[in-house]
Amino acid sequence: IYHKEQITEVINITTCEEFYDMTVNVNTYKNDFKLLNDLDFTSYNWVCDPSNTLKFQGNLDGQGYTISNLNIQSPYRKAAVFFEITNSEIKDINFDNCNIEGLQDSAVIAGYSNGGDLKNISITNSKVSYNGNAGSEGYFAMVIGRLHKDTTNMTNIFIDDCEIDCNKYTGALTGNINKGNNCVLNAKNIYCD
User: Fold this and answer.
1) Which of 28, 67, 80, 160 is surrounded by the fewest CB atoms within 10 Å?
2) pTM given for the model
């Protein structure tokens, strides 16, 4: 039997450690991931490593579960759950009471997008902010800091009771859409209060 496309394994996520590993593990970055329960990051220390330049190319199905009390404090660029996404699907997931702080390209979901589909995502009671270090170019948002290339689709995005605090280039969905690289944002059914 021959299959011309690589078959990916579905990896179930049940702990904060497994969720974090999804964002940094070079051996599984193209896999499909499924969240099996709510995750509370209150006592979890999210480590921001400047050597992590992982471009996540997998898919995440949140199955309607919630990531809460996530705290990412980074002195570096691209502070977010994912450093970058490339042609990824992230769907059916909620983020509540998340605090993301970085130098630039900062958001809840991803610092950069090189194309992907984001749908049925809610972000509530959360904050994305500039860390105050010299050298920031901005690009802060609730969903993705900067759309770099290709097409990013955002459908059924719900943003409520959130705050963005930065020096320049900011928006609810993204802080920038690159003029080159055929970069496109398709946005549908967006709610922001």
Assistant:
1) 160
2) 0.92
pLDDT the model gives residue 138: 86
Measured CA to CA, the distance from residue 175 to residue 156 in angstroms comes to 19
Name the helix (H) or strand (E) containing 89.
strand 88-96
Distance CA 57, CA 169 (A): 26
Secondary structure (3-state) at 84: strand
Among 147, 79, 98, smallest CA distance to 118 is for 147
Amino acid in the structure at residue 66: T
| Average pLDDT over all residues of the chain | 91
Reported as half-sphere exposure (CB side, CA atoms, 13 A), residue 57 has a value of: 9
Q: What's the CA angle centered on 62, arms 184 and 96, to 5 degrees?
A: 85
